[in-house]
Amino acid sequence: MANQDFPLIFEHSQESRTGFSLPEMDVPEVDLTDMFDESYIRETEADLPEVSELQIMRHYTALSTRNHGVDSGFYPLGSCTMKYNPKVNEDIARLTGFSHIHPYQAEETVQGALELMYDLQTILAEITGMHTVTLQPAAGAHGEWTGLMMIRAFHEANGDFGRTKVIVPDSAHGTNPASATVAGFEAVTVKSDDRGLVDLEDLKRVVGEDTAALMLTNPNTLGLFEEHILEMAEIIHDAGGKLYYDGANLNAILGYARPGDMGFDVVHLNLHKTFTGPHGGGGPGSGPVGVTEEFAAYLPKPVLIKRGEQFGFDYDRPKSIGRVKPYYGNFGINVRAYTYIRTMGAEGLKKVSEYAVLNANYMMRRLEKEYDLPFNQHCKHEFVLSGKSQKKLGVRTLDIAKRLLDFGYHPPTIYFPLNVEEALMVEPTETESKETLDAFVDAMIQISNEAKEDPEIVQEAPHTTVVSRMDETTAARKPVLRYNKDS
Ligand SMILES: *Cc1c(COP(=O)(O)O)cnc(C)c1O
């Protein structure tokens, strides 16, 4: 799609055209060789395009819109909760009292910021039904690792050194087995049954005296609520293990169900998903961890506490697993999450879950007429389709995902979870209108029809993007980052 307003700045370069003006030099010129080793000094001038300020402005503005974001279009990337991030969050996070403070400032000079963090901890503890929350971890996976290190410290404090295994369902998020491994445990898989839920018989088979914990993603990555949580909690606790709740996506249960009430000992949340921290592009995130009273002593230090009317950090925590992040967490994301929670209120948060679940079920029921639905049950905030019928026509799920780009949509998560052939995992979120949901479903139906009548158009998609299909492996491993790859 050639764009007139997108100047190819190298091609448009004109000798001596400048986009800046500098005053006459009024200081002595410096000899660079006095300052640097000669090997660092370039011999020829950099071959930079010579363009006007307007041209360079258009260039960067055009580049800034080349990426797809929630603010530019529908983004139903399952498990990632790409919901709208309210802009009032940004206004509040930019207040100088929050944005211009320094982590080394004396506590009495940042009482407002500490109070916000303390209140957020308290609110998140209430939402999850846990005793205490730490805001230190910087992301979901980091929260998982932090929680598992606390579980490890707990078992070791009890002289229970043989608990080396963490049980992870095959429908868990991929970070779960990874975090268990990084925390020094062996990840053991428990299978799902034919309804897509944890198979209790298989759980009984793998649990034992070597079980440190069960890590449960709920709703699981099929978008299904694990119906037998109370039985699972009993099985694990009876064996002396602990229960870890992956609450990265709390979008389906806010105000309706709390991990603490289900028997979980440790839970993490992703503020950059459920609580509207902007994400994508690698951060920053925030993955607070909530624990029961039994685990409070192991929380990362320093722990933010209230002494009378003053907020401050408690470093005197002999059983703490230590610091897991410099300073106190990603404060800016905490401010955004706090703003979101306060603007929504308790009733608003319940509505979030109602609409997230309604939207997902609405789309699922419209799409099941055209795509295979491997687990035909009410879903929570997301659902998983299979493109196996389309595959028989020569159109793979990857092709469908690429074709969606031509309609201006970010594709759903594909080929995950692994227990569904040609999986397409769709998470609409509560912030989209019915018109948007319908338009996306219509595009999916059109693509399925194309697969039957004109498969090439899908196989060769995308047709409207700046670059078409890339070699996915070399694009990631050996990206060409130069404008002119031969220079
Ligand atoms: C996103 C996600 C994670 C990982 O969170 P990051 O912030 O990306 O590390 C873990 N579990 C589930 C269920 C998730 O959706």
Automatic annotation (TrEMBL):
Cofactor(s) required for function per UniProt: pyridoxal 5'-phosphate
EC identifiers of the protein: 1.4.4.2
HAMAP family, alphabetized: GcvPB (MF_00713)
Subunit structure: The glycine cleavage system is composed of four proteins: P, T, L and H. In this organism, the P 'protein' is a heterodimer of two subunits.
Descriptive protein name: Probable glycine dehydrogenase (decarboxylating) subunit 2
Role summary: The glycine cleavage system catalyzes the degradation of glycine. The P protein binds the alpha-amino group of glycine through its pyridoxal phosphate cofactor; CO(2) is released and the remaining methylamine moiety is then transferred to the lipoamide cofactor of the H protein.
Entry-annotated residues carrying N6-(pyridoxal phosphate)lysine: K273
Cell division among keywords: no
UniProt keywords, alphabetically: Oxidoreductase, Pyridoxal phosphate
SUPFAM superfamilies for this protein: PLP-dependent transferases
Keyword rRNA-binding included in the entry's annotation: no
NCBIfam families referenced in this protein's UniProt entry, alphabetically: PRK04366.1 (NF003346)
PANTHER family: GLYCINE DEHYDROGENASE (DECARBOXYLATING), MITOCHONDRIAL, GLYCINE DEHYDROGENASE, DECARBOXYLATING
Region described as Disordered: 451-487
Domain Glycine dehydrogenase C-terminal: residue ranges: 353-453
Enzyme class at the top of the EC tree: oxidoreductase
Alphabetical list of Pfam families matching this protein: GcvP2_C, GDC-P
Domain Glycine cleavage system P-protein N-terminal: 49-300
Catalytic reaction equation(s): N(6)-[(R)-lipoyl]-L-lysyl-[glycine-cleavage complex H protein] + glycine + H(+) = N(6)-[(R)-S(8)-aminomethyldihydrolipoyl]-L-lysyl-[glycine-cleavage complex H protein] + CO2
Family membership noted in the UniProt record: Belongs to the GcvP family. C-terminal subunit subfamily.
